[in-house]
């Protein structure tokens, strides 16, 4: 290693602290990790801020000497339970990365069906070990969540920067609906499109409504959101109960409401 490379990086003579970070995936499409690698415009700056010691999607090898573990995906097998517990033991900070990790994501739709039926339909004559889907915090303590399916790379970089320099992590408390309005969109309810924007945590800059597609709630509930009121508004706009349940159950953040609606009870 050259002398320059061995020297710790400094700013105004003060050594810059670079946390050791590692990325892991459990059951997932790996799209959240891909988002980080895709951010070519700022990837080098991001890599300057942290020391990546493990990232299977982006590098070979690696060590288990890390401080911050980013874990993508939900838990669907016993070996993943053990792996997650080991990651938790090694990491000072464990971050749930994306909807699968935060609430089970699209994977948790499996929990709506009998497990034996799922195994037969999905794996046929090649059965594998698979269990009901769990989010990370159903198994270990999670220090931080980064929402979205997929995550927004800009948000990850902001959160990692805040972690590296010791800032508080601040999430928007308001819903996607606010971002949608601020962007000057017309309300999708007025063009017959269902949308969970009024109850979903902001931070994606109304990604879907900006393209005239209703929000599916991938970032989970906004603080103090009024789900019951939204269901009532959607019913007034003529959306069927099945349509509303489809939206609520898709990513897992509102799954409990979907369950209650399905049994005919008002949540
Ligand atoms: S949250 Fe979405 S993008 Fe991320 S791993 Fe899960 S399915 Fe893929
Ligand atoms: S608009 Fe809704 S579904 Fe689309 S990215 Fe944002 S939170 Fe997710």
| Poorly predicted tracts of residues | none
Taken as a percent bin, the fraction of beta residues is: 5-15%
Main sheet summary:
5 strands, parallel
**Structural class, from helix and strand content?**
alpha/beta
Query: What is the arithmetic mean of pLDDT?
Result: 91
| Helical stretch tally | 11
Strand order of the largest sheet: 4-3-5-6-7
Please give the share of residues in helix.
25-40%
State the shape: globular
Taking the alpha carbons of the first and last residues, their distance comes to 61 Å
Report on this model:
The structure is a single chain. The chain is α/β, with parallel strands linked by helices and 267 residues long. It has helices spanning 3-6, 31-38, 40-49, 78-90, 99-103, 115-123, 153-165, 176-182, 227-236, 241-249, 255-262; strands at residues 10-11, 14-15, 20-25, 51-55, 68-72, 93-97, 144-146. β1 (10-11) and β2 (14-15) form a beta hairpin. The model has no long low-confidence stretch (mean pLDDT 91). It binds iron/sulfur cluster (SF4) (2 copies). One iron/sulfur cluster binds at residues 28-29, 31-32, 72-73, 98-100, 105-106, 149-150.
